[in-house]
Amino acid sequence: MPKFYLTTPIFYINDIPHVGHAYTMIAASVTARYHTLLGDDVFFLTGTDENSQKTLAKATELGKDPAAFTDEMAMKWSTAWAALGITPNRFIRTTENEHRHTVAELLKTINDTGDIYKGKYDGLYCIGCEEFKNEKDLLANSVCPLHLIPCQQISEENYFFRLSKYRDILIRYIKEHEEFIKPDIRRNEALGFLRQDLKDISISRPNKRWGIPLPFDKSHVVYVWFDALMNYITGAGYKSDSFQKLWPPDLQFIGKDILKFHVIIWPAILLSLKMKLPKTIFAHGFFTIAGQKISKSLGNVINPISIAQKYGATALTYYLLSGIPFGGDGDFDERALIERYNSDLANTYGNAIQRIAGLSTQRGIMLPSTYKDFLTVIAHNKPYQSAMDSLQFSAAIEYTQNLLAGVNQVINKEAPWKLTNRERLAFLLHNWAAQLSDASYLLEPFIGEKAQKARSILTGTIPTESIFPKIEAA
Ligand code: MSP
Q1: What is the pLDDT of residue 473?
Q2: Which of 224, 248, 381, 433 is most solvent-facing, going by the fewest CB within 10 Å?
Q3: Cβ(23) to ligand 1 under 6 A?
Q4: 347 Cβ contact list (under 8 Å, min separation 6)
């Protein structure tokens, strides 16, 4: 069984998940289901990024003990994913002992190779991005364009990582490995970063109360991004026997906002550790709400759990991945979600199943007890397979919808409910049921167990029911 190691970013816990965070998780969950159906041994990792200074700031603001606060928030994030039907194999928290020990060990190795040195950092830092900034990337008065807060002026003794040493190796690697950074627009962006002067980066902060101490100087804590990126190593069980089998990641999903960290710093860490680089890092686009950035201060944050409670997690998954080509940006619109669900799932798919299964019961015609399996189905639907393999979810959905529209067209043309010739009716019903079973497989990565239920209806194992009841718009 080939392994498939899949990761998402680990999320900051100073707030609860919004629909943008859910987008990454949903894409990963759909990919995990697809690879499971292909027969791969999937390992799906996600978690929470807890050592950020933001965690401490938020706990202090709420008057809570930081450790208790992290427990409470990590629980909120993991239960949110469970509520959306997302089931990662491992949920890592960067405050776990295992992670802390692994990070210390990896840092020691990097230090031993001579890639870490002590220096002085004079410059700016955005606590929102948790990033050292250049004045040229900021607005007037050193305001961060993403967080709209002024950066802190920092002047401190720091440890630095020799990032510059890996510039030419990275350029060559990215050029030689077309699949390494996807989509191509992000690959070009990465090459663009590397064409500029690549400076060594500061990887520690002195005298902080929160974070993982450097193993060779306990008066410093590790810069949070350096620790967070290493979660992909710890989460795969660095110390366990299965690690060699899992490494490297096959696919790492990130949002386009954190590209630089993942395509420059992360591979450089791995090169320094002499570890293999991930096969593909895919940066998806960003969701806005009514054209605006999702932000608490704008008051437009949408909680994915409320959406799932109202319409079901399947409706949310299907909507987020159907309209916008994965990689591009999109706008979240609840009415569009309802329309998409009603037209594709309730009408085109759900109704067809109910009509065919209903008619077969009514006329006492047994439907087949087995149909083609997933691998046979996708072998007959190559455009679907190549869309899924290249993470073009919307194209895979569109392909399936066209197939279903074709089935519905023939059903309407043949008007089987009027047919009196039993043999002909049985022939047609079997044919349509087989096509609907195929479509259920193609939809399964997106709709999960509802597709299995559809197939049980189509084999007559369970009675006909409406799998996708129509949503009445509020
Ligand atoms: N903790 C870091 C990641 C460390 S990974 C080693 C971080 N966390 S985050 O919580 O701010 O956001 C993580 C991810 O959430 C983004 O990269 C992106 O995948 C997703 N999104 C956050 N807002 C989003 C949208 N508005 N739209 C789409 N994805 C969004 O950065």
Answers
A1: 76
A2: 248
A3: yes
A4: 470
> Residues 119, 120, 121, 127: is their CA dihedral positive or negative?
positive
Residue 166 pLDDT more than 80?
yes
pLDDT at 296 over 80: no
Give the single-character DSSP code of 282.
Answer: E
Picking from 336, 252, 363, the residue whose alpha carbon sits closest to that of residue 19 is 336
SS3 label, residue 80 = helix
Task: Give the tens place of pLDDT for each residue, 95-105.
Answer: 999 999 999 99
To test the pocket of ligand 1, the residue of 6, 7, 8, 11 to mutate (highest count of ligand atoms within 8 Å of its CB) is 11
| Ligand 1 centre distance from Cα of residue 21 (Å) | 6
Ligand 1 pocket residue status of 228, Cβ below 6 Å:
yes
Token pair of 331 as six digits? 């706008």
Q: Which residues are catalytic?
A: 18, 21, 126, 129, 144, 147, 293, 296
CB atoms within 10 A of CB 338: 20
Q: In DSSP terms, which residues pair with 330 in a beta bridge?
A: 287
What DSSP string runs through 287-320? EEETTEE--TTTT----HHHHHHHH-HHHHHHHH
State the pLDDT confidence band at 282, using cuts at 50, 70 and 90.
very high
**Nearest residue CA, atom 10 of ligand 1?**
11
301 lines ligand 1 (CB under 6 A): no
Calculate how far, in angstroms, residue 24's C-alpha sits from the geometric centre of ligand 1. 8
User: pLDDT per residue over 321-356, tens digit each?
Assistant: 998 999 999 999 999 999 999 999 999 999 999 999
C-alpha distances in Å from residue 101, one per residue of 96, 159, 214, 265, 298: 9, 19, 11, 21, 39
Cβ of 257 below 6 Å from ligand 1: yes
Ligand 1 pocket residue status of 312, Cβ below 6 Å: no
Could you give the 3-state DSSP secondary structure of residue 172? helix
Q: How far apart are CA 266 and CA 278, in angstroms?
A: 10
Q: Under a CB-based contact definition with an 8 Å cutoff, are residues 291 and 300 in contact?
A: no
CB of 287 sitting under 6 A from ligand 1: yes
Question: What predicted TM-score, i.e. pTM, was given to this entire model?
Answer: 0.96
Dump pLDDT digits (tens) for 106-155.
999 999 999 999 999 888 998 888 888 888 889 999 999 888 889 999 89
Tell me the C-alpha distance between 464 and 242, whole Å.
44
Q: Place 474 in a pLDDT band, splitting at 50, 70 and 90.
A: low
